[in-house]
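Check this:
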Amino acid sequence: MRSKKIGVLFLAVLLGVLGGVTQIGAAANEKATINLYTGGSDNVRIAWEAVLQAFQKKNPGINVQLQFLASGTGGQTGVDKLIAAVKAGQREIDIDLLETADNDLVRIFGEAGKNSLSPLPVKEIPNLKYVKSRSAAGGDAALVFRGTTVLLAYNAAAVKKPPKTATELYQWIRKHPGRFAYNDPTTGGAGSSFVITALYNKMPAEALSSSDPKWKEQWKAGFDLLKELHPYFYKASGKVQYPAKNQGTIDLLANGEVDMIPAWADMILDQKSRGLLPETVKLTQIEPAFTGGVQTLVVPALSKNKPAAYKLLNFVISPEGQRIFVEKQKAIPVITPSKLPKETVAQLAGLKVKGFRVYTIGKLSDEIMKLWQSDIATLK
C-alpha cells in the first residue's frame, strides 16, 4: 500500500512539473506587444509602416501596434493620453513608445512631471552612440531619431528671385495678391510654423524656448501682421482660404493656383521623388528661419513592455532604420551619413538646411492656435 501511495504521489508531482513546463513553453511562445503612438501627415504613417515591417521581420517575437492620429482629425493625442494617465494616478498605460517634438516634452514634464518618462538605458540601446543630436528638452529620456523643418516651397517658373528674409517674404505677399497660401495651422505643422514664426520674429529669441505665460503679452504685433496680410492670401470664390492640412497648400502649388507656400521639406522632397510635383517646385529657407527641429521617441514610465520598446528604439536609429526613414519620408538622418548607402543620401540632394529653429513653448502653442481661429480664421 505504501509503494502505491508513493507511486501516486510521484505521478502527481510529475504531472505538475510537466504542466509547469507546458505553461512556461506557452509563455515563451507568446509575442510581446507594444503600442507606438504617433501622428502627422500621411507620409509619416507610410514611413512608420515600412520601418515596423522591417523591424518585425527581424524580431518575430515582438508585435508592434501603430496607433496613428492623422493631422487635423481631432481626437486625443498620445501626449494628452499620457498626461491624463499620470494625473489620474494610473499604474500602467498602453503607450509603450510615443513620438514627440521638444514642444511636447515641455508639456509632458510640466504637466506630468519629470518622472513620467523613463531614462533610456544605453546598454539596451547600443546604437545610441551613433546618434549625433540630443534633445534639449528631453535629455536622456528622449531619443532623437529624425530631423524635419519647414522651408519655403515655390514655383521657380514664376518666382525668379525667391525671398531671402521674412521681411522680403511679407513684401512679396503684398505685391502678389492671391499667390501665397498657408494651411490652417490647427490642421498641419507647416501652417503652424508660418504663424508661430510671424509672432516670434517680433519677440526676444529666448521666448521661443519658454512656456512662461508672460510672453502672451507680446503676441499682438505678430497677430497684427497676420491680420494685415490676410487680404493678400489665396482666395477662392472671392474669399481668403486657409486650406486644410499640409497637403492642401502643396496641391495648390502643384496645380499652379499659388506660387509660394511654407511646407515641410520632407513632404516636398518625397513627392518630387515620386513625380507628384512639377520639376519647377523648389525649396529655400528664409532668415529668420521657419520653425522645425528634431523628432524624438520616449518610453513612458508606466509602460509594462520597456525591453521590447528599447529593441525598437535601437532598430530605428540603426543604419537600416535610418535608411528607411530617408527613403520613405526624406527625413534628415541623425546618424553619420557615411553609415548610409550613397544612393540613399543622394535623395536629400538640394536640401540645404542651415540649422534647425526649434520652438519649445509648451501649451502656449495651443493658445496661439485658439487665438488664430478666433481672430484670423473669422476675418472676411
